[in-house]
User: Fold these one by one.
Assistant:
Number 1:
Amino acid sequence: MPTLNLYGDSLHGEWTLTSPQHPQIHTRCSLPGDIHSALLEANLIPDPYFACNEQQVQWVGESEWHLSRTFTLSAHELSASRLLLGLTFVDTMATVWVNGQEVLQCHNMFRRFEADILPWVMAGENQIQIRLLRNDAEAAERASRLPFPIPWAQGNNQIPHMNLLRKTQCHAGWDWGICLLVSGVYGEISLEPVFAVQPLQVRTEQEWRADGSCRLHVDCTYQVDKENVPLVAQVTLLSPTFSAQGSRQENSQHQVEQIHLEFPPQPCGEGRFRHRIDIAHPQRWWPAGYGPQPLYTLQVAFIDVSAPDTDAPITARNKLIEKRIGLRQLELITEDDAIGSSMLFRVNGQAITAKGANWITLDALPSRHTPERYRRLLEDAVAANMNMLRVWGGGMYEQDIFYDLCDELGLLVWQDLMFSCALYPSTPEFLLDVEHEVRYQVQRLADHPSLALWCGDNEVIGAIGWYPESREQRVKYTVNYDRLNRLLAEVVEQEDPSRRFWASSPCNGELDFGDAWHDDNRGDMHFWDVWHSGKSFDAYHSVKPRFCSEFGFQSWPSLPTVKSFAEPDEWNITSPTFEQHQKNGRGNSIITEMITRYFRFPISLEQQLYLSQVQQALAIKTAAEYWRAYKNHCRGILFWQLNDCWPVSSWSSIEYSGRWKLLHHHARHFFAPLMATFIHEPFAHEPNAQGQPMLTLHLVNDRHATQSLHGEVLQLSWQGDVLQRWPLTCTAAPDSSAPIWQIPLPERNPSNASGSPNASESEARRGFYHVVLHPASPNHQANERFENSFYPDEFKRLPLQPAQIEYCISGDDQGSYIELWSQHPALFVHVEYSGEGRFEDAGFTLLPEAIGGRRRLRFIGSASCAELAAGVKVYDLRSTY
């Protein structure tokens, strides 16, 4: 077995994996990690993501697994008062054995478990074993003991009763997720000898003064194990520009404060001290797009003055807790108004428009939850001008690296508690387990400046009306729900009074059990009428949510991603492999039907995949731009979903491979701080004297500064000729949306029975409208421009001309580029590279070269010009038929 020389180290690394049901298996497993990944690495299972292999690996989740290793201890370590074994993210039912003695039982993936193993260890080599028990069997056994049935998410989960376990719910499958009932240990596995004092927790609280200063309260709890020993604590706050490496400090920078606190000898037991630090000129933390993200470093060290190595550095001989904190004020504002009730976040006194997406678990195989992948996805979110992510309640409370990166990047976090799309027990043992879980998670995460909101669950209020049992006895199941939800609220309020608790998503407000799926006057809304009910994209104009925390539309993945999971003879939308990688029962049918509604149907698979992504981008763009134009009504737009946990057809804007779909490229524009959008509806702003419908251009400014712009609106024929030109000079007030241009335009109507064109068809045959705006400041970047287009009819009815796109690839010291030009307008232009990397923009309208429409795109990646030339494919809408 692998061994470890231990002092202040972890038990991470190589373990031995066996199974009592499969005695022939004896292989390695790296922890933190999961069993499926270990078996895959050992070639004992096929890749579950490829073809239809999902069904071939279900036996793994139906087996018990044992993880074993040895570790060594010295006599010095055995002289400690306690030797603490700590584990986090243990998935899920498990027992831990040391030298043949059971020392710990784990039963909740979202809790930290700890045991003093000193009575069962010895100097020299020791053995530890983690037995991962069958989660499916435990769920079935718990179901048999319930006082009344608790319905589970049968439309999503393939394994019954996962709602009875405190485990990632989508491990049993979802309507975008593979069913892999993984198990393992994904977090800390530590051994910590305690000699004199053990720091337990450091929490902070910010008190803001009228003069703009901030008083930081530092609250520390600790455990004393040795009586009558003097205790010294050192509290250090480093400014955001201060750097420290171990005990070496950069003297060119400064400390905000460092203080030594000396305590008289204390009895054994838990202690606590509170210290305050006054910061006269705090550097405030802001969400992305609103300002910088300075992070202070707080260190609390306990110095054992009785230790023999008193000259050693603090970090080497003592217990140190270090965390980064951001100084900011954050409020969730829900105030009654003429419409209903507002819902918006205010940061440092300024109203914020939340723009972003929903976050699901990073990968169905937790071994692949690497810091590099977290960073790449979160940086991609910021690159698309997002400032908020909702951590969805069917996944997991994320790893520390996720919240650290959100702090660093300025991504606000809407944090669901882990309950989703099912009902849950309210038995005493379940409630006690959940109480410990939520208390631990709130204590763990509360000091992150990115954390904006605690939400009780995802769609559980609504789920009461989904199941026959709860529909028949609605009062009973509502009381059952309320018992759990009230407990969650109480724990959050006790542990983090600085933040609001939001009962559920969607929710109309506190103690309001109304229909938040369809009420756009208050609370947060999940608007799914387009995808699930088959309504047109114009249905997004029928509502103006106060805060839309879910809406979405699926697309198929790109061809390079399809190639990663399907053999060439399976490259077909209705092949077994492709359908295995579509988990929504009607998904492919909905995508196909909507394509026929708006577009001419493409023939090749490549064109079908591309057009599905055009359609998805158009759907979300339609909603986001409209709601942003009415920003006084709507202050939050989070689409479903940012990422995929395996290669699949889904609602994501970024594919499992990391490729940006067209939606993510479009999000960079429709979430931009400055945005211009056309809105065509009856009396969109003010009707003209004849009461005609109007086409209005709205200018949206999320910045808290006035913006001056100039540019023009063009009406272009389908050949690319300029039919009309309207010069524009405009000023956008801070945090505003206002119309800046308007003309009468007939409503879109189907052709009449005679077959002669109506007014809207005649308009569509003439051409389309396009706006280009530039900042008026003389020192703005040359490529800083804001564009958008309006097309007067369904795309299948438009007389598009073959664009005849040409391009060339070049490079210089700054990187590689593609330059594109065309003879006629090209819609939804997308340059796809088959290898790693992407071009900086996609999905745009390329105007003819004759009127200055040439575009130069930078490549983001390491491919050479020769590699790009061999691997580039250019798509546009007209080329699909």
Number 2:
Amino acid sequence: MGRKSILFIIVFSILLIPFITFANTQPDTSKVLAKAAKLQIPFIENKGQVQDKSVRFYANTFAGNVFVTDKGEIVYGLVNGESFTPLRETLIGTIPSTIKGESKSATQVNYFVGNKENWKSNISTWDSVNLGEVYEGVELKLKAYGQNVEKLFYVNECGDVDDIKLTFDGAEDIFVNESGELEVETELGTVKFTKPFAYQELDGKKIEVKCNFIVPSSTLRGEERGEGELSYGFQVASYDKNYPLVIDPSIVYFGTFGGGVTTIPYDVTLDNSGNVYITGQTYGTLGDFPLISPLYSYNKGDSDVFVLKINASGTALVYSTFIGGTGVDVGYGIAVDSSENIYITGSTTSSNFPLMSPIQALKAGTNDAFITKINSSGTSLIYSTYLGGSNSDYCTAIAVDNSGNAYVTGNTNSTNFPLSSPLQGSFGGGSYDAFLTKINSSGNVFVYSTYLGGSDWERGNSIAVDSAGNAYVTGSTQSTNFPIYNAFQSTMKDNNGYYSQHAFITKINSSGTTFIFSTYFGGTFGAVGKGIAVDSYGNIYVGGETFSYDLPVTNYLSNPFPMSTNAFVSKFDTTGATLLYSTFFGGSWEQTVNDIAIDGGGNIYIVGSTYSYVDFPVYRAFQPQFNNTSGLKDGFVSKINPATQSFEYSSYLGSYSYGVDNVAYGVAASLDGTAYVAGVSGLPRINSPSGLNGGDAFIAKIADIPTAITLSLFEINQHGKKVLLTWQTATEIDNLGFNILRSETADGQYVKINNRLIKAKGSSTKGVSYKFKDKNIEAGKTYFYKLEDIDSNTGPNLSDAVKVKVTARKGKEKKK
């Protein structure tokens, strides 16, 4: 009875949010979103990272951003595509004199943006913002959650509810609807506030006090409305004024108008303690931040690099760090060393990208690569340097060895790319060459740096390093004279224009002085290497995509579809000369592979996206169906066991996205087989108007749930006119009980023969013996029995069939 279940953990990222956890075989999106809605979001103190000094605090919810100014204004950022507008809510007749954060959050925020004098570290975050006594005897606090913002008015015995009045700037109209909710019309859509909930705490119990919104000249929505300012207040029933009264109206949603994906996580990695690290690209630095005015500008350029650290349990964000200059800055790769220092790499067009003790201090071309090392707390740069020549250079991946040396690969079309002890000392030709660069742990020396390419074009897509410091690179090449050494495949199989590109797999020794091997890998219509990993034995794993039907394979998880891009996974021995395992998989439409990882058992994890909405191979899937609009992509994650040459699981990953592709970009795997997937998904927002949805970044944690039972014995004996079934469990985890299924043929229909569930009695440390008597048998017939255990996580699991032939006389047959 094999493992079938997946633990699914997902983050809808606005970058400053811990992720939420739940377990289910097939996650219910509504439950995920409901959990997200309740997640508390910290307020970030403005220490100059927001240019407008009037902003004191801000929070980034899944629905949008909210700001608190020094005048006590609450500003909601509404965005619709490239359109944005602020909705300002102001207290009438008062300006708060004391605004402060309360209940310090564990999350820290760091900005290395622009010139060094503008860098900010260890910015505090708070669970709530206290605006103090806004009216006599009335205190106001704010709390932010995944999908709403709470205003909490505390009215003491000296306070008067009638004093509380608020007005909107940026609204076109306001109404109280039939449900008692306050609807605020804006040029981008409707913002809704829940019907206010008021209560008093008496003898430790919350006693509700009836409370409603009141609006000047208020009528029900859709009827004629009188003139008056766009303001509101509260009307409450009688209550005991000897005790404080709390009024709690929450904004239900805002900023949910299809802002699109503005945060893209490209890579994910783990440290030895199981903490999760993510890097990528964000427009606006803080996620879906609407640039309300030039005063509310966070990042200095078009996009910045972000780095997130999430604790191992997924319950808290340890820190978020933003890095960038005045141009486009993208983090494509991330790695972590044994001291939890972070290494990131990517590309930048910024001439003022944040640097620290750089080997290359000036941007040399249109686009340069960068390599940055950050300390374990995310608060300072250990080193940061450009890497590039006079044209365009991109780093796509990074790895780090046991000594803290970093290895990067990518592509360059610069003929003066920085070299050091190169294996290939000149640009090979074509539009781009791949490259491989090793930088020492202090970041002050390139140990080696070399081109890697022939006379046509190359792309370096992924890199890995083993315990000896040997580097492994994969990518694609269209050069017939790519550097080849001890090759598994020494030539390209054909030349069919674009489809002639082949994957390459190259291993270079630790000093960068020798190719250990370098090989093409492809078929008649080429291939692209997108991800590479190496296990503790030095075996090499490569994942990618191919148009070829004749790529070297050892088995078929699915047959290659003609005229379609199929995914592939291949395993080579440490010499690169022997193909240990190789397979196709995918559906009839295009598959894109973005990354692979391996666990301690040599299982392979591969992620990407697919247009195959019907026939992508799913197995033990937590999302068995394509979940996006026709013509858009859905993400996927697959776990493959090379030893059994089969899927452990394979699943779509994403949600209906209203115009946004679902894409899984990066994957990391723990030694015990837990996968962490980063990507973008158009998961719908809660209570948002139909069609008004945007995409979000996510991080998903996927793990096998242990099998409900370990079966040590399943025995069947005939005793006279009965068949006795006996079984023994060694362990039971989350097992609800058993059913007995019977058929008269091995491959026939099995029918449950017990009237009620046979209840489980075992535990995770103790097995139990069970018996069941089948009295409804006929002499001379053969029966086949299966034992079905009901797992509370996965549902039913079936044993193999056991056969017994019933004789006319008393006898006995058994089979284990």
Number 3:
Amino acid sequence: MWSRLLEDVAARTIDPDRAREALRRFAEAGGARDRAIAELVAEAAVLAPYAATLAIQDPAIAPAVLRAGTLDRALSSPSSYESELPLAPDSPELRSSIRRLRHREMFRLAVREASGRAPPDVVMQELSALAAALCDAAVRAGRLTLDERMGEARTSSGDVCRFVVLGMGKLGGEELNYGSDIDLLYLYETDDGEAGEHSLHEYFVKLSSVVTAMIGEVTDHGFAFRVDLRLRPEGSRGPICNALAAAERYYETWGRTWERAALVKARPVGGSLDLGEEALRELRPFVYRRAVEPKVVHEIDEVRRRARREAGFDDERDLKLGHGGIRQIELFVQALQLVWGGITPSIRERGTLDALDRLLGTGLVTEHEHAVLGGAYQLLRRVEHAVQMLAFQQTQRFPDDQDERAQIARRLGYGGPDALGSAIERARRSVDEVYAALIRNGHRESPEREALLDAIAAGAGRPELEGPAAALGFADAQTAANHLARLGRRPDDPLGPLTRERLPGLGDRLLFEVLETPDPDQALRHLDSFFSRMGGGHAGTMKLLADEPALARLLVGLFGTSDFLSSALVGHPELAGSIVLGMRAGPPTPSEVSAQVAEVAEPLLDDTESLMAALQRAKREITLRIGLGDIAGQLDLEAVSWLLSTLADSVLEQALRHASRATSARLGSLPLESMAIFALGKLGGRELGYAGDLDVVFLYDAGPDHGGAAEAYTRVAQRVITLLTAHTAEGTGYYLDTRLRPSGSQGMLVSSLEGFERYHRESAASFERQVLIKARFVAGNPEVGERAARIIESAAYSAVGPDTAEMARLRRRMETELAAERGGRYNLKVGRGGLADVEFVTQLLQLRHGARDRGLRVHGTLEAIDLLRRGGHLDDSTAATLGDGYRFLRRLENRLRIVRDEPRTELPRDPAALTRLARRLGYRERSDADAAAERLVRDYRKVTSSLREVFGRFFEDSAP
């Protein structure tokens, strides 16, 4: 019976022979007779052969994994293992339990990755968390053991002397693979103290040896991780551990560039994590120099070359050390971190991909470089993991054996080993090209650009420049030639001969960055306007851009991405200084936004015209900084929306303060301090975009003794609207939409709390309950706001469930009357599967369950989706579809609106405009048959189809 069951399990796999053999060995080893366990072992045998070997060697592994229920759950924190690593002295039993835990987790993680339950980056985090947990357990066990043998280690002040294990390399970057060594560096607090009759150094040398052996020593159960201590001060010749002061002296005196690079990834993983953070803070000036040092790039490259020479390396099948391999990508990233990290703190990331994202965000790598390096790194790490899962060997070598190659290709989704080999070679070749450009001069050289710049410096006019401009890829070569000629019209202009002499490379840098933007024609136009508007005072700016390529990339990137943000800067050149400082500092925080608005408004609250202009200036400058952070990748969708919403909140608050004071003064009345402004829609949900209207309602509580309150507060509201919507020399503030108030545009502009409550109790339509979900207090009297919020919650989340049919009818009308999707027209807001589908599903569930579960009463869509998932009202898959789809569409909406300061919600139908949009979203041209615009539309259709399917499930037959 049992043998027939095993045969059935094996037959259901993609490789029955391999599964059958593994199950036979598992049964012979005494494995549990359970179908679920057999299926897990068979799955491992087919997808990750060595994982099955582990399960056979220890038949308790597979049942333990199933009981724990961790195949579908990430254990990304060392604390996940606390219960399995009790506080106990070092012993053979403890060392065996550490190794058994390691083997079980290697089995679990290999199955998770090979089966697609977890991507490689998550598995790397989990492996790193396991290693950190074992390091910490070894420190705790070692100290218990040595305290008993040698005496407790204490400083001269009587405190316990701290000790830390720093994880270096892949462990520090949370990038461990199945065959990784762990690079460790041991530090202790001070030499000033003692451990019984022993010096602190003797104690911690012994502790370091114990920790190393507990993790790395080979026993009957193998080892946990191989330990490499060669990254310590003085390498293998130096002491196994150092006091913090001794380590600092070494690095200050003898520290070399490769040691700076090693410390980039350093992370406390065991012992006193606080001491580790202190040590890294003390060493930061050594790692990240304030002076920019371009020579570091060449020093890092020499480290790579020397390592290959010393190893006699000639195996180009090595995924790590071969040309264009993993190590080359890591060194590229670390070189830029060392060059720029002293003045750009945001790039100080340990993980390679995280650091690469930050380098893109600060403009230190182009989107092309980011795509090449990031894509290659992910591919090579996936292949590396697949190679290691064959036998859990410490290898990064792509196998010679054709059967093994075929297994790897099949597991990674390639048609065969040749297809996978070609993909690897293309990726590595591209990495080589990007790396070589960094070694040369930081950006790719181009004879075509150089010839064009020579012609400009020689005084060539538009006719002579048209041909070269067209060859470089400008869509409108004639207009581009005009801009290029103007940029070199005078000797000291950015492309003029004197500038080329004084600032060699600036012109090529600017032209290179222009061509890297999503819209080179637009970027060149704004670059020309920028320097033209600055007049003769642009020498300092040019010097800054020449000295700091990251700023040049950010500035030109802005010009090529957003017309309206570029116009805001070009039209107000006086902002250039503060914006450049903002580029260095990064995007503002919410508190900085609020503080800046309050600072400019406070002195002007009694001066309407001046306040109006000041608020518009502040809005423009802050929006520019947010937009720069967005374009640079420093802000994600939620952060951009939160900051733009905070800006609108702050402006509304200052406008209401002014309006209340001015109206009170005009009427000669008591202070009008009992008003509250509530935001609805996107602002209510903190989901505002660049061109969003502000949906608001004005509420007040006049009290019993003020008969003229309605008229007075109406005047206050009218002043707020006028202040924010009026056009001045500084531009326009916001458009306020008050049509969502009781009775819509036919109702009073302001509502008393009593009237508002009565309306929603007696007269409100079904959709108005839905509107109130996003109602959020943003300005005015907090006590009035609190009372109004209680009324709003009571009205929205009543015991009466939502009218599903009415919601579906309203959604159908929106799609039919507003979207008008036909003939290739796509409306991402109200079209089929658009943002409205996500919001309606989310709000339906909030209305349905929010009466009982107060935790669901939140304003933001993404927050609501997450809470609905946690509460069991959405399964993980549906929540992911809704959340990912919402982010995709909102990001698309933001990129549409960042081009023009207009509320656009339709995909462009013009092919050129659609291509530019795709490029702004990070799509790159691959071939005529797989154009960026076509991939964008294909992704849009896929996302909206998935969202419509979810919508249909919740609204059943009522779905439009």
